[in-house]
Automatic annotation (TrEMBL):
It comes from the Eukaryota. It is a multi-pass membrane protein. This is Solute carrier family 43 member 3. One of its GO terms (cellular component) is membrane. It is found in: Membrane. Its main location: membrane. One of its GO terms (molecular function) is transmembrane transporter activity. It comes from Xiphophorus maculatus. Keywords: Membrane, Transmembrane, Transmembrane helix. Gene3D superfamilies: MFS general substrate transporter like domains.
Amino acid sequence: MQVLENKLSVRRCLTFVTGLVECLCFAGVVFGWASLVFVLKEDGYFSSLCFNTTGVNGTQILDCSAQDEQFSLIFTITSFINNFFALPNGFLFDHFGTTVARLLAILNKLLRLFLIFFSFPSALSFLLFLALPLLAVGGILFLITNMQIGNLFDSRRSTIINLYNGAFDSSSALFLIIKLLHESGVSLRTSFLFLSACSVVHILRTFFLLPRTFIPHPLPDRYAYGCEQTSWCLFLSEKTFRECLLSRFFVGHLLWLSVMQLRHFLFIGTLNPMLLRLTDGDSSLVSQYTNAFAFTQLCAVLCAPWNGLIMDRHRGKPRAAGETEHEADLRASVLSLFLTALQCVLFSLCASIPSLPLQYLTFILQVLNRSFLYGGNAAFISVAFPSCHFGKLYGLVMVLSAVFSLLQYPCFALVKGPLGGDPLYVNVGLTLLSVLAFIHPVFVYMHCRNLASERAKSKASS
């Protein structure tokens, strides 16, 4: 019996570590867009849209605003598809299980990498409109199938979910590595061919370190992968998907995610033109700050666990008399939700100030808030709703927030057009919009306080 338990412990640890590496290296690479854009411009993608124009002093300057607009449009579509396909991915995962979902993700990865591999800068730049969205779709499938690993470690469940989401964010640094390799003479094609070969690792994990269906929660004693569960939706099983969807928790959480995600998407999508404006077109300074931004993304995997630790620490406190595990989980999530909203407001304020040195602080606040945002999103859904609806609810909240994030493209157009390239007023407006994120933690806190008050009244009356 002891030997079996030791084998299970080793296998679970190996599953956890390899899942972390997978999320860190492959899942969220699309958010390293700022580094990839730099390489794409160097390779001449959409360069035909650039033209010479006369500056204010009569000098000839190269106007590439149309090229920037194409790259902004690609990122807008990609960020929307990243969230929109989370819903079908969630249904796919809930209905068919882990193996089918991951095989689809692997096939998707191979397709998108070969599209980039065969896209030539002048004639086939348009393939980026297909390749980058595919890059996002496969990445979210890897994340969804890995987050269930948190169920193997109940006392650290929220920490592991946040850690994987932090690794998802940090994987954006992969494009920084590609950028540095490109500057050293390694072509974009060679880098993407190597990434295609890494699909062997995904296949091995799928068949040897993950279950065919799901990892249940709560976890049965001596649970072994491949041991099918007849009913794994044990927590809050009385709630239907429709009831979850119409609950105030879901609506509040959707608002919380949407307003902050829009702020992040707009910042990432406009980072390159913003740096060009603040540096007066100095390409060496733009490269320096782009590298700094990409390096800070590596820190997401270090920042995200703190959010999970906050939740797990509060969850581990002694419960009040009559308090259920569900209530304790909700109470533990309040501080996490509040801190995430506060970080977003501070990040947005710094991003609104047109000071180049200040952007270093902006980068730090951005990666801290982003790691708290997505880790907290998945962790809250996992504790507030039944486990059997996790994939669908996670996918749906990502889809609806993606629809909201489409507002970023009108914001791009507003900055490029009427505002003459100055994003100050848009940034101030988004900062005010970010304040709405505080509604969700306040509501969850009031709900927990009302439950505690009802328990006290019930105890007094008895």
